[in-house]
Specification:
Helix content: 25-40%
CATH topology of the largest domain: Ribulose 1,5 Bisphosphate Carboxylase/Oxygenase
Number of strands: 9
CATH superfamily of the largest domain: Ribosomal protein L1/L10, rRNA-binding domain
CATH class of the largest domain: Alpha Beta
Number of helices: 8
Largest sheet: 4 strands, antiparallel
Structural class: alpha/beta
Strand content: 15-25%
CATH architecture of the largest domain: 2-Layer Sandwich
Oligomer: single chain
Order of helices and strands: HHEEEHEHEHHHEEHEE
Length: 229
């Protein structure tokens, strides 16, 4: 049964005509009637079914307005790089001893970064890290010797963009408490990333079939995309 709060929200908003995000954000925020700071989320349906191949997107976007989340970042690296990782703001840093802890199920972190030379050892823990989405990936910038950049990006506001088997992508662009300018900058960063992914794939037609915006406990509105993706 829908709650009394939810019943007070607008009905069938997804059936309305699409509109630009600048006009939708005030509506989204008005619908954030819970006591907590709700996330503002984008949902894309992409054209992933192609005749010759299937489009699979997995990348990251650096959100210029931040994401409003405090991410606990761990780094696996050589002892000589430990100070670099700590100075960059990593919460947990270690080498072989840390890998053993991960192997035993100690994973008190939300993002794992690794240097290329240590990745050989860490790759053996695929069955442990993979299902939790924690395995470092060079394509996502989490296997690198530039630990300062990787940790800074993860801490300052980075989101993963990844489609499921049905072509759905969900990504948060911030919180209700963010000002509209922050949210719009993050939104445009996501569109720019999708545009690059379209260019990198042999795709006929548009990449995105539909796009919606909603809040954690709100209702969705269809977005009129401002860029040809």
């Amino acid at each position: 049964m829908p709650s009394k709060r939810f019943k007070k929200l607008p009905n069938k908003t997804s059936e309305l005509q699409s509109d630009v995000i600048e006009k939708l954000l005030p509506l989204i925020k008005k619908n954030c009637t819970t006591k907590f700071d709700e996330s503002v989320d984008l949902n894309f349906q992409i054209n992933n079914k192609q005749k010759k191949n299937e489009i699979n997107i997995r990348t990251v976007v650096n959100l210029p307005g931040g994401n409003g989340k405090k991410i606990k970042v761990a780094v696996v690296c050589e002892d000589t790089k430990a100070s670099e990782a700590k100075d960059a703001g990593a919460d947990v840093v270690g080498s072989d001893d840390f890998i053993d802890k991960i192997k035993n199920g100690e994973m008190d972190f939300e993002k794992l970064i690794c240097t290329p030379s240590m990745m050989v050892k860490l790759s053996k823990l695929g069955k442990v890290l993979g299902p939790k989405g924690l395995m470092p990936n060079p394509k996502l910038g989490s296997v690198t010797d530039d630990l300062k950049k990787a940790v800074t990006d993860a801490k300052s506001g980075q989101a993963e963009i990844r489609n499921d088997k049905d072509g759905n992508i969900g990504v948060s662009i911030g919180k209700k408490s963010f000002n509209d300018d922050q949210l719009i900058k993050n939104y445009n960063a996501v569109l720019d990333t999708l545009d690059k992914e379209k260019s990198n794939n042999t795709l006929k037609g548009d990449l995105v079939k539909s796009a919606f915006i909603t809040s954690t406990m709100g209702v969705s509105y269809k977005i009129k995309l401002g860029k040809n993706i």
